[in-house]
Design a protein that fits this description.
Blueprint lengths: L1 H6 L8 E2 L5 H11 L11 E7 L1 H17 L5 H12 L3 E7 L8 H21 L3 E5 L7 H7 L6 E11 L11 H4 L10
Antiparallel strand pairs: 1-5, 2-3, 3-5, 4-5
The structure holds flavin mononucleotide.
Length: 189
């Protein structure tokens, strides 16, 4: 398990192929996704499973919105937008549904991020691959509404999942010394 955590890499949508998790494996992924720290037990998140006909519907919606936003886009560009997403066999859309009350929204957002990350880790643990993207798609109000967002909700991430067609290359990571240090007390200036 620790090896999976230490070596996980995002895989681009164009490099995701079948098989994707389904049935019991998909259930394990969403179960792990909802087992996150959640101050106040608010569950300020929802997951939409997009697969099969859903992928067709979602990529058509994305293409339609792309065409609406880019009035000068030609058919090739619109189809490119449709097809690059349709390449993923499974998409989990994570929606953030903020709850009014005593729990700071920031903490609810962090919990929602943890949902996204648990999806990636669970998929990786089962031998699948994926990536967490927002692009313009997560910020388009009509797409958000179509996914089920209310007025205050947001799309935290679209997690594209499948099997890696080729092993991804490593990418640079910060040196631990740049981002981690022991704290031994406040320093006085
Ligand atoms: C909230 C969030 C949104 C992201 N959106 C995008 C995106 O729209 N496009 C993109 O290229 N990478 C995006 N990324 C980055 C990728 O998910 C990923 O971190 C990156 O490709 C590095 O891969 P790694 O997971 O192997 O470190 C996003 C990451 C986060 C946390």
């Amino acid at each position: 398990m620790i090896d999976r955590l230490l070596t996980r890499r995002s895989v681009k949508v164009k490099n995701l192929t079948n098989p994707a998790p389904d049935g019991a494996e998909l259930e394990q992924i969403v179960r792990a996704a909802t087992r996150v720290p959640d101050h106040g037990k608010l569950a300020p998140w929802r997951i939409k499973i997009i697969k099969d006909k859903g992928i067709e519907a979602f990529s058509s919606l994305v293409a339609t919105r792309f065409a609406a936003i880019h009035a000068d886009a030609n058919d090739k560009q619109i189809n490119h937008e449709r097809e690059r997403l349709a390449n993923a066999p499974l998409i989990l859309a994570v929606l953030y549904t903020p709850q009014e009350g005593r729990i700071p929204l920031w903490e609810q957002e962090l919990s929602t991020g943890a949902v996204c990350m648990n999806i990636l880790h669970a998929a990786t643990a089962l031998g699948f691959a994926g990536c967490w993207l927002t692009e313009w798609i997560a910020y388009d109000a009509e797409i958000a509404t179509a996914l089920g967002c209310g007025e205050r909700d947001r799309v935290a991430g679209l997690i594209y999942i499948g099997t890696a067609a080729e092993a991804p290359e490593e990418r640079p990571r910060p040196e631990l010394g740049e981002v981690v240090e022991e704290w031994v007390g406040a320093t006085r200036g």
